[in-house]
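Hi V.,

Quick status before I head out on leave. The structure for the redesign project is tokenized and pasted below; the design run finished overnight.
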């Protein structure tokens, strides 16, 4: 079965995990609660701030599941023995998830005046260049090797890197 997505292009190789992440994100419901901000902090930093008035540190949990930052809040129901004439402040639960790029790290989190702050840092990506040498074409028909490392006229990239001291 062929699916038509941006990652269906033959030029995108090995991006299956990214497509799965996007599928997972599209299936999450966003009811807008709690509201949040994302701001740049310096050259490499990000700060996520969530408005979580009424939640204590014990009511909140932050987990990193693969590359997904998940913030959950669950307030304890303290209405036992109380009679409300009007209850406009509900003890509601939430789950807010953010997909983080590879290498993004959570540096810390703190709760201040009903705002939960999470500091993230995204390191500068390293530029990597690797040369791949081109070997002779495999010989067809006789089934015998030609003295190469794997009998197909090609030397594996790993073997090349080891033989050149890299």
């Amino acid at each position: 079965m062929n699916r038509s997505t941006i990652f269906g292009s033959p030029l995108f190789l090995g991006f299956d995990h990214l497509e799965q992440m996007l599928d997972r994100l599209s299936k999450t419901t966003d009811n807008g609660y709690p509201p949040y901000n994302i701001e740049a902090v310096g050259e490499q930093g990000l700060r996520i701030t969530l408005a979580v008035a009424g939640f204590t540190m014990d009511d909140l949990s932050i987990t990193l599941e693969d590359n997904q930052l998940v913030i959950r809040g669950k307030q304890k129901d303290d209405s036992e023995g109380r009679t409300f004439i009007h209850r406009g402040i509900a003890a509601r639960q939430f789950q807010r998830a953010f997909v983080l790029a590879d290498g993004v790290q959570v540096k810390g989190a703190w709760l201040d005046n009903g705002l939960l702050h999470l500091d993230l840092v995204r390191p500068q990506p390293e530029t990597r260049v690797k040369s791949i040498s081109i070997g002779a074409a495999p010989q067809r028909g006789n089934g015998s090797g030609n003295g190469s490392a794997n009998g197909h006229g090609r030397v594996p990239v790993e073997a090349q890197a080891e033989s050149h001291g890299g």
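Above is the designed sequence. Helices lie at 16-27, 157-163.

G. will cover questions while I'm gone.

Best,
W.
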